[in-house]
């Protein structure tokens, strides 16, 4: 699977779960122990509000605090849809993958930024599904893309607070179970 296709599949997977959140479920707990369903959607909505800026080469200082606080407002689904649409367009824009992206860890290649965002979309689609009791099965090609990336990065992420410690799984566990376990979740 091409990286842009994987990113878009991740947007679709997460967005599909956002559209399944019932009015009474926004406060539901998720596997991200400090985040409710609303917090989780707010996290990714904020991330995707930043994406068009960063993919155009903006620095963190140039973006500033414009996406601080509650980015969901009274319409969390609409806020997500708007941010996801802008993020999708930014990734597809000519030259978007040619310029390094400014992040809190320094400048990184745009493709690395897309891999990080795709992984975040996939794992948080699983988290949100678990939090609201929806189907947590992810697209197999997306899982394969994310597992390949995460397998090479997991040791580096330990101690940074990005993900919890890996959870042991059986050798014959599915790719999806291996992915979420690698990222500190219990499949």
Counted by DSSP, the helix tally is: 7
CATH fold type: Four Helix Bundle (Hemerythrin (Met), subunit A)
Please state how the strands of the largest beta sheet are arranged side by side.
1-2
Secondary-structure-derived class = mainly alpha
Dominant shape: globular
Mean pLDDT: 94
Q: Would you report the number of β strands?
A: 2
Q: Rg to the nearest angstrom?
A: 16 Å
User: What share of residues are in beta strands?
Assistant: under 5%
Top-tier CATH class: Mainly Alpha
* Count of the separate structural domains: 1
> Which regions have little confidence, pLDDT < 50, spanning 5+ residues?
none
Name given to the CATH homologous superfamily:
dinb family like domain
Order of helices and strands: HHHHEEHHH
Query: Which CATH architecture?
Result: Up-down Bundle
State the end-to-end distance: 24 Å
Q: How much helix is in the residues? A: 55-70%
InterPro entries: CHP03086, DinB/YfiT-like, Maleyloyr_isom, MDMPI_metal-binding
Protein name: TIGR03086 family metal-binding protein
Pfam families: MDMPI_N
Domain Mycothiol-dependent maleylpyruvate isomerase metal-binding: 9-129
Walk me through this protein's architecture.
This protein has 187 residues and is mainly α. The chain has a single domain, classed as Up-down Bundle (Four Helix Bundle (Hemerythrin (Met), subunit A)). Helices cover 56% and strands 3% of the residues. It contains 7 helices and 2 strands, in the order ααααββααα. A two-stranded antiparallel ribbon has the order 1-2. α6 runs parallel beside α7. The longest helix has 23 residues. The two termini are 24 Å apart. The mean pLDDT is 94. It comes from Streptomyces johnsoniae. This is TIGR03086 family metal-binding protein. InterPro entries: CHP03086 (IPR017520), DinB/YfiT-like (IPR034660), Maleyloyr_isom (IPR017517), MDMPI_metal-binding (IPR024344).
